Hints:
By secondary structure, the chain is α/β, with parallel strands linked by helices. It has helices at residues 16-27, 43-47, 56-62, 73-80, 100-112, 142-155, 167-196, 201-227, 238-254, 260-274, 285-290, and strands at 8-12, 31-35, 51-52, 65-68, 91-94, 116-122, 135-139, 158-161. The relative contact order is 0.08. The mean pLDDT is 95.
Amino acid sequence: MSSDVEKSVTVIGLGPMGQAMATAFLDRGYVVTLWNRTASRADALVARGAVLVPGVEEALAANELVILSLTDYRAMYEVLGPAAPALAGRVLVNLSSDTPEQARSAAAWAAEHGATHLTGGITVPPSGIGQAESSTFYSGPRETFEKYRSVLEVVTGRTDYRGEDPGLAALFYQLGMVMFWTSMVSYWQAVALAHANGLTAADILGHATDTANSLPGFFAFYAERIDAGRHTGDVDRLAMGMASVEHVLRTNADSGVDTALPAAVAELFRRGMDAGHAADSFSSLVELMKKGETQPQLP
């Protein structure tokens, strides 16, 4: 740790993730200042020596380094906005989830108030906080990141710096979330289908795990071809995939389970077929998805 970095930190936001981070800092001998809307969430941490302050201004005044663990960036504005004059000179490590554009806007907002914003994207659940093998993406001013790297390594042992653009850490985080949520929902779909046919989640666990473990090989195989814009049907064809996803859809329908997810996949394949990619690899769907033709109303 740099000699000018003290072992003290402020944590704002004490949901499960914030509590885990505060605990990790206490475990490493840090002086931890806390603030949370619901003060009782700090009780166990205070019993271990953390300091709970009554207001956001006091939380900001306590330390140069402030860890934010909030629901999203809107919550950051709600919490910090009324205390904006106290932001000058603070380093905000924002580990809240949101979009890359929100991260860029937040960095500009922080700068307007004399603070430095470092975006973070944690890749593990609360149980992974404080673990050497866990990782967090960071982006923002490199000098700030390097100054506090050893402090950030308390949160997760691995710190993956992605560049000066404050949106990059949020982007890498969301890339992971795209895959995580979709993959987990596909597993729930498989479990629902299994239950409808008299099988349990335990019955299909081995098969589900083997299927998931096969995916990295497919990722590696297609990455080079996609980056080269090569979607030739020498290994697979979209038309073949179309038949397969229709079988998946019909199997779920015949079993009486919800078909929203397999129907959405089938619709994407149909769009690829309609676009003339029947004889191409199903990786050609990437080109279709890049165009963003389907844009549902966002909240």
